[in-house]
Amino acid sequence: MFRVATYNVHKCRGLDRRVRPERIVEVLRETGADIIALQEVLSVEGEAREKNQARFFSEELGMHLAVGENRKIRGAPYGNATLSRWPIALAHNYEITWRWCEPRGSLRTDVKVEDGALVHLFNIHLGTAFLERRHQGRVLVSEEVLNNPELKGARVALGDFNEWTHGLASQLLAAHLESADVRYHLRRSRTYPGVLPLVHLDHIYYDSKMKLCKLRLHKSRTSLVASDHLPLVAEFEIEAEDGKSRG
After folding, report:
1. Is CATH 3.60.10.10 the right assignment for the domain spanning 2-238?
2. pLDDT 10s digits, 195-228
3. Which helix (H) or strand (E) holds 30?
């Protein structure tokens, strides 16, 4: 059994408008996740330690780090970051930007979980425009990314999909992978914003060789103010070649 989480940290700016990376660390500890996909991470070099948010999370939690820089904000790297309790064997950031829209990426990290099973995790933050997401969905399910024949392990695709409705990107992912059904597990279909959920933005898709044991939206006093999103947390087992579950 291993636990993954996806969490848009909103540059660590909370609902009180304060930028507090230490609150995000507290929330991440609360989830107990082994692998964490973060979106909207800003990492400013050469200033206070917590300004480099990706490194700060990694050091505070004692986890391995991969960073997918998609663009610069005032000269500082900005994009996705993935944390793992286990060493990261490979990290690669796929370009999924559409035309003139904001640069976007899908950060792939390959991790061998506790029992040695290989997991390919794709940390995704899609765009806000309808046509942009349609393009990005097609790129993600291509043979260059999620359906790359070189992928030998179980695949997990997760992140902030920015789809207010069940759009093409979500449909394409669900056609190639299993969808973590928030309506079934959470008894509701809305995950964002955290305080008063109105829409379903945060998604997790996974390989059929995996078993989703539990799915929850992590809600605590700190998580309700640390970002406008809440962490979506899933627990998995991986089916071995003999048909038995492991993980």
Report:
1. yes
2. 665 567 899 999 999 999 999 999 999 999 999 9
3. helix 21-31
